[in-house]
Every structure is written in structure tokens, then in C-alpha cells.
Write a structure and sequence with these properties.
By secondary structure, the chain is an alpha/beta fold. It has six helices and ten strands.
């Protein structure tokens, strides 16, 4: 790079920083009277070079400004607070979203992606649909207590298995335990104050979930099937001697006995039919043999009498 080019670039950068760049020539030509001390010798192509650099600089500035605006918009969309909810954030605990007591009937779908704690208690939710919280990869605490929840669809908490630490479903209207709704969860859960219905399906479902064992102790039976088994008001997990599948086992045994009796009856009926059919054929064959003319063969009388006896 020549001395002229270096000097021109230095002057151009200085003008850009000061905001006084113009397209006209601001530096006198070499040798003209009135040249400013320390100014660069400028040939006739100086305005053209300055204009070219200005245009390129303006384009780059506009592109950079657009990129910054787009980044800010995406960041705002990802981290802004849900509508009507209150958000707070701390360096140690992350973002907390509180949507308590807002009379909500559906799970909000605009929760920030970086949320770590969500409080949705004291609302009017009746169900939790599948993948309701799949867009919250950092969620550690979820409070759904004091709602009208009666149904948890399969996959309701899908995607939270690696991060969720505490799930509060207390004081709702949950009756049936759906193990598919808790797939992959290893969190501590509060399942108390729900009208749980204890039956054989509940007994078979509990071993299929990975929730903490202490969490399952919150399932207190309000109704049961069979009704006279005496489990109402008891925590089902704390009554291991109670077998809610005993009726089903008895029913299965009876069904097996009935099936076996049916097969046995079929076999006996077939044997009776087979014996009767053979007796009829044997009788006809004997009548046919008796109808044949008797032929006496000398020396064979004893053998013939033996054959007749056998027949």
C-alpha cells in the first residue's frame, strides 16, 4: 500500500468516526495554495474513492443493523414472559413464571423456553394434553395444584424426564392413574388430595412408573373395586397385603375351568359317537357274515369254530 493510500484511509476513518464525511473533496490538491498542514497529497481520483468506500460502508452498516434487530427480536420472543403472567429471574435459580389464580382453562403455549419454574396453581384446568411442556427443556419445578384436573393424557409430561425435579398435582380431581402420562419422569411428585379409584389397573400400573417411591404413597384410595376389600382411606402403597386383582384372578380361574370342561365334554361326546358308530358297523358286518353260505372244510372245523368265537 502506497503512502497516499494509507494516509487516505486514515483520514477516511477519522471522518467516519466524527460523522462529517461528505462526497465533495475536502482536502486541497497537492501544490495548491492554502493546503492544510499535514494533509495528504490527493490526486483527482479522491472523490471517486471516497464515494465508493462510503457506499460500501453504508451497506455494511445497514446489514449489521438488520442482523442486530433480528437477533433482538428472536431473543425477545424466546425469553419474554407469558401473557398475563408474572416473570422473575435470578442468576442462581433462573427464570420463574407465575400464572397462579388467573382463571386459566388451558395450559399456556407461550411460556419462555428458558423457564425453570412454572406455577399454574389455582386455575381451572381440566386436562393436561400430550406434549404440553415439551418446549421447556430446562423446567425443574411444575406446580399444577388446586385445579380441576380429571385427565392426564398419555405423554402429558413428555420431554421433562431429564430436568423435572418436582411435580405438584395435589388437590385436583384425578381418579384414574395413567402410567403413560408419567413416562420417563423420575421426579418427586405430590399426588395427595385426589379422589383416587383403586382397582386392579392401578395395582398393575404403579410398577411401570419411575416416580420416587415416596411420591406414590400420596395415592390414597377414595373408592375401590371390589368395594368390600377395605382399602378406602388407605394409602395403597402402604398396604402391600391387599390384592386388588384377586377378583380378576378368580374370574380367570373360573373361565379356565369352564373352558377345560367344554373341551372335555367335546372329547367325551366324540368318543361316544365314535363307539356307537363302530358298534353299528360291527353289527352290520356280522349280519353280512352270517348271511354267507356255510362251507365245511375237512380238518378245519376246529379253526373255524375258533374264528367264529373270535368274531
Amino acid at each position: 500500500m502506497s503512502a497516499y493510500q494509507r494516509c487516505s484511509l486514515v483520514h477516511l476513518v477519522n471522518h467516519l468516526h466524527r460523522g462529517r464525511l461528505t462526497l465533495r473533496r475536502s482536502v486541497p490538491r497537492v501544490g495548491r495554495p492554502g493546503r492544510l498542514p499535514g494533509a495528504c497529497p490527493v490526486p483527482d481520483t479522491m472523490p471517486m474513492a471516497a464515494g465508493w468506500l462510503l457506499r460500501r460502508s453504508v451497506v455494511m452498516c445497514l446489514l449489521l443493523h438488520s442482523l442486530v434487530l433480528m437477533t433482538c427480536c428472536f431473543h425477545h420472543a424466546a425469553t419474554s414472559c407469558s401473557k398475563n403472567c408474572y416473570c422473575s429471574e435470578s442468576e442462581a435459580g433462573g427464570k420463574t413464571v407465575r400464572c397462579s389464580n388467573l382463571q386459566l382453562t388451558e395450559i399456556p403455549d407461550d411460556l419462555p423456553n428458558d423457564t425453570r419454574r412454572v406455577y399454574l396453581d389455582f386455575n381451572l384446568f381440566t386436562a393436561v394434553p400430550a406434549n404440553a411442556f415439551a418446549g421447556l427443556p430446562y423446567l425443574a419445578t411444575l406446580d399444577l395444584s388446586h385445579n380441576e384436573l380429571a385427565q392426564l393424557e398419555p405423554g402429558a409430561f413428555r420431554g421433562l424426564g431429564n430436568t423435572l425435579q418436582f411435580l405438584d398435582l395435589s388437590s385436583n380431581k384425578l381418579e384414574n392413574f395413567i402410567p403413560e402420562a408419567f413416562e420417563g419422569l423420575r421426579a418427586q411428585a405430590n399426588l395427595t388430595n385426589n379422589p383416587w379409584h383403586c382397582d386392579c389397573s392401578l395395582q398393575l400400573a404403579l410398577p411401570r412408573v419411575d416416580l420416587e417411591a415416596a411420591s406414590l404413597a400420596g395415592i390414597v384410595c377414595q373408592t375401590s373395586d371390589p368395594a368390600d376389600i377395605g382399602v378406602e382411606g388407605l394409602a395403597f402403597l402402604l398396604a402391600p397385603e391387599i390384592d386388588l386383582c384377586v377378583i380378576m384372578k378368580k374370574t380367570t380361574d373360573v373361565a379356565m375351568l369352564v373352558t377345560m370342561f367344554g373341551w372335555f365334554s367335546m372329547v367325551i361326546s366324540y368318543l361316544v359317537y365314535y363307539v356307537r358308530a363302530n358298534q353299528e358297523d360291527a353289527r352290520r358286518h356280522l349280519e353280512y357274515l352270517k348271511s354267507l353260505p356255510q362251507v365245511s372244510i375237512p380238518g378245519k372245523s376246529e379253526e373255524s369254530s375258533t374264528i367264529s368265537t373270535v368274531v
